[in-house]
Amino acid sequence: MSRSVAPVSAERAADESPDEFAPAPALKFRELRYTKLAGVATIALDRPGALNSYSTHTLKELAQAVRDASCDDSVGVIVLTGTGTRAFCTGGDVKEYASRYTQRPHDYWKYMALFRDAVDALLRCGKPTIARLNGITVGGGNELHLACDLSVAASHVYIGQVGVGVGSVAAGGATQWLTLAVGDRRARRMLFLNERIPAARALEWGLVSEVAPSIRHQGDLIAVPSDREVELAGRGKEEYAIDLRPLDAAVASLAERLLGMFPECLRYTKEQTNFWKELVWSQTAGHAQEWLALHFATAEPFEGMRAFVEKRPARTREIRAQLARGESPEFRFGPPARSCPKCGTIGLPAAFDFCGRCGASVHGGGARRSP
After folding, report:
1. Domain spans in the chain, listed from the N-terminal domain onward
2. pTM for the predicted model, two decimal places
3. Are 306 and 98 in contact (CB under 8 A)?
4. Confidence label for 15 from pLDDT (cuts 50, 70 and 90)
5. Where are the alpha helices (DSSP H) in the chain?
6. Which band of pLDDT confidence, cut at 50, 70 and 90, is reported for residue 135?
């Protein structure tokens, strides 16, 4: 026996349907701290033991948090920062690179897709973003900083790139945007030499929007601290200390000024001023993703990441010496040019004296090179 069901009006159905754009009621993150207060969403990278470097998982969470803030109409400004006083972000977790991506280079392509998602979220969130630089800002950390619209740096901060020193290329925003931010020569110096740029110089160059004093000595703030004063404050020695309250006040003031502007006008102004950033990013990010994934299968990232993890100088000159001798340092043990005369294994590295499968000598007596 069937029952008739009263039709539901379109108006009532619309009233009862969920809001697909409503922010998630209670997002929980493992490697981020995410808060919303008085129109400001604050996303803090929370891996202090790793100097707030981002892992593969962090990137997933970062994109999710930015998208949530983007869709929340109660949020007018997004602040990106790190926890603690030591680091804003030191880029990708090099330990993860060394243990995972040098072993499975094809997975680095997937990793870069996640990084691009996070950067794209910051670029296209439709709301002004402020990077609150609370500590060291290097590598991919600087690239996340460059993806933001404005930035305020604590005076003890330094900014830099590390790619060519660890066997990588800073093509996640730095090679694209540093020239826009600081000019060609300064950008090349940062990218080629990996020099540290202190906060005061970063302000002079236009790399940051504002600097807030963060070093106290015997209670007094020091406007432009020396390297030694920064070191002493970081260790809490000789009555020096790091105080981030002026940084917080400066960020809050900037956010409040932004909240005083018309939101739709801000959104379109962001879209317009993003033109050059978007242009160079869209033309190069995919290429970088492909090249870096292939590059992770070579000797340079293997040596660079291992040296970083082992806290030793990278053997860059050995690689250069191999080049000078006409060898192929792209391969850790030479190109796959030998074959085993005993078991027939092909593609053995040219530097091998014995077969890695059966142990037979691959010199003379029938040893042959692979086609």
Report:
1. 21-295, 299-328, 333-371
2. 0.89
3. yes
4. low
5. 10-16, 56-71, 94-96, 105-123, 140-147, 174-182, 184-193, 199-205, 227-235, 245-259, 263-273, 275-295, 299-310, 316-324
6. very high
- List own/partner pairs for 60-63 with CB under 8 A and 24 or more apart: 60/114, 61/29, 61/30, 61/31, 61/32, 62/32, 62/118, 62/121, 63/114, 63/117, 63/118, 63/120, 63/121
Q: How far is CA 1 from CA 4, 6, 8, 75, 104, in A?
A: 10, 16, 22, 53, 62
Give the CATH number of domain 21-295: 3.90.226.10
161, 170 Cβ separation under 8 angstroms: yes
**Tens digits of residue pLDDT in 317-330:** 999 998 999 888 88
Token couple for 65: 């948090």
Choice between 330 and 138, residue whose per-residue pLDDT is larger: 138
Q: Which pLDDT value is given to residue 274?
A: 98
Write down the pLDDT at residue 327: 85
